[in-house]
Amino acid sequence: MAEQEVRLGGMALANGVLVHGPNAWGCAVRLPDGRLEVLAEYKRYRAASVTNPLFRVPARLAEVIALVPQVRRRMPEARLPFERPRVLTAMVASAVAVQVARGSARLSPAAQELVGAVASLVPAVLALRSDDLAAYHGAEHIAIGSHEHGEAREKEHERCGSHLLGPLLATLTIGNVLAARAPVHLRTPARALASLGAVAASTEIFSWMVRHPENRVAKALARPGHEIQHRLATAEPTPEQLEVAEAALAACLELEHGSQD
């Protein structure tokens, strides 16, 4: 069977890179003694076959939720971004900040929810602010982007999850403003539903942005995420870090191409 283009995603680790496709994942880490360890397996749960817009986003979320423990269990040397103490501390502080913002009488309901939405995203940004993690994030983008475009690419990638920031802030704010109007006893489940809806809507908006990169609205929505990538979340990798990303990519593609035979 002819080789088909494989849609790839990735995750930067504190000591390596995870690359995943529709059917498989490949992970490569640099051990403390300098050795390169690589592992690839097929995913236990796959969301690629789910095309219904109502179920597509929940299926993708379930796939990620299932993937991370699988990688962690099979490759315990991998150091995930959110395992660091300062990120866990930021998550607690962020939760407190959200509650303070929502209880402030000085802010309008829309301003309360916007501040809360920004505060809720701080841990994710902080997780990417370390020299090694930012460099591995850049290496992930370079390896995947160069493979997809058939030429050397920069450390920013047009499908990076940071581009969800603009749509997510807007949809979270709108959703939580509406949820705040629900009766008090229904407000908590309403906020949970609003958050789920915001993630689903943001993902669909992001997909539209990828398909229409020259659209003015798409460019405006992508701008915050691009700035985060360029200024905070990525750094130029060393040749050794790029070697790790390319090893993860090659391991993933070997299984993906095998699944197409």
Describe the structure.
There is one protein chain. This protein has eight helices and four strands. About 5% of the residues have low confidence. A hairpin with a 3-residue loop joins strand 2 and strand 3. Helices cover 60% and strands 9% of the residues. Helix 5 packs antiparallel against helix 6. It folds into two domains: 105 residues, no CATH class; 123 residues, no CATH class. It is globular, with a radius of gyration of 19 Å. Strands 1-2-3-4 form a four-stranded antiparallel sheet. The chain has 261 residues and is of the alpha+beta class.
Q: What are the salient characteristics of this protein?
A:
four-stranded antiparallel beta sheet; alpha+beta; 9% strand; 261 residues; 8 helices; globular
Give the number of DSSP strands.
Answer: 4
Extract low-pLDDT stretches: 87-98
- Large-scale geometry: globular
By secondary-structure content and strand pairing, the structural class works out as alpha+beta
